[in-house]
Recover the amino acids of this structure.
């Protein structure tokens, strides 16, 4: 069995230095960190927190890091589904899991976050809501101290997997259905937040369709905000044949603006949240199974704990129209 002493000998440092690197202590040179991490990787060394859990047939303790949407008064259904799916799967997979909101650690450095997580006995992470601006999370993942599964972030290394729908294809599919059903020639596309990984992929899907069908495409950034999408629709929808929104909340905002303007334009969304069934105007949307995505993320993390290598996991999507009778309990 590989020990911390083996790592120290291979990297040419003291055992205490290896311990400092594992626990992200300050004042360790980047060169030393690199040598120690390379030795850990080459020897496939498993730190005691993980080894103890595995030896007792219990997978290491895991944190679900999740970004709570505070930009709307609507209950964040997506976050609740992620939490529900992860907790249920963790019980089935015999994994202990805790939930940490990203706002709780956003003020910390990567080293402080690592020490905090390790003080909680955390060895694995499932991260939901990571953006391009979250450099501290990127450093955390790249440190490879933790096994990680990233939701809707297209990034993989040997200790990190990613999971989510094919956002480019899903956006292409729902937009094509809406456009072809309504003989559309021009589209107002309301994109999501510019710092979100999914925004670029969904925009690529829309651009691909526009080029394929010769559509006139007008793009505005709605920041995944119902209010922002409503304002955009008021300003630009009258001169376009249809509205494609990169989220259901934005689709709802756009549709309500059209109702207030007393004009009709076909609108489609993305996500498949329950609220779409209450709008009164049935819109095409992409249904993502957030519960299933979180559940699969837990099982993927368990696979990484058991020695598997990081990979991209694509989950399925479905094109639907949500009706009130389908969402009431």
């Amino acid at each position: 069995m590989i020990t911390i002493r083996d790592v120290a000998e291979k990297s040419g440092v003291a055992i205490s230095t290896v311990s400092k690197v594992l626990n992200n202590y300050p004042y360790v040179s980047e060169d030393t960190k690199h040598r120690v991490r390379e030795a850990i990787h080459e020897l496939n060394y498993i730190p005691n927190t993980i080894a103890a859990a595995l030896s007792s047939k219990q997978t290491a303790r895991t944190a679900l890091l999740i970004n709570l949407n505070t930009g709307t008064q609507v209950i964040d259904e997506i976050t609740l589904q992620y939490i529900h799916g992860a907790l249920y799967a963790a019980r089935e997979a015999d994994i202990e899991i805790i939930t940490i909101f990203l706002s709780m650690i956003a003020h910390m450095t990567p080293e402080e976050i690592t020490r905090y997580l390790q003080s909680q006995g955390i060895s694995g992470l499932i991260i939901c809501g990571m953006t391009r601006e979250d450099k501290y999370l990127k450093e955390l993942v790249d440190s490879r101290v933790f096994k990680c599964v990233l939701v809707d972030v297209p990034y993989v290394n040997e200790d990190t997997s990613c999971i989510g729908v094919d956002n480019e294809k899903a956006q292409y599919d729902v937009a094509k259905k809406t456009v072809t059903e309504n003989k559309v020639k021009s589209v107002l596309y309301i994109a999501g937040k510019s710092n979100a990984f999914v925004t670029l992929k969904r925009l690529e899907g829309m651009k691909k369709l526009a080029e394929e069908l010769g559509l006139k495409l007008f793009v505005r950034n709605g920041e995944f905000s119902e209010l922002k999408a409503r304002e955009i629709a008021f300003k630009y929808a009258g001169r376009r044949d249809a509205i494609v929104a990169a989220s259901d909340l934005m689709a709802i905002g756009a549709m309500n603006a059209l109702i207030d303007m007393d004009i009709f334009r076909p609108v489609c969304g993305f996500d498949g949240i329950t609220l779409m069934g209450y709008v009164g105007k049935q819109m095409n949307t992409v249904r993502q199974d957030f519960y299933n995505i979180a559940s699969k993320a837990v099982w993927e993390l368990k696979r990484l704990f058991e020695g598997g290598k990081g990979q991209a996991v694509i989950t399925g999507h479905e094109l639907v129209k949500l009706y009130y009778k389908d969402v009431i309990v």
Remarks:
- The chain has a mean pLDDT of 90.
- Residues 249 and 275 are 8 Å apart (CA to CA).
- The chain has two domains: 4-37+46-164+291-315, 167-287.
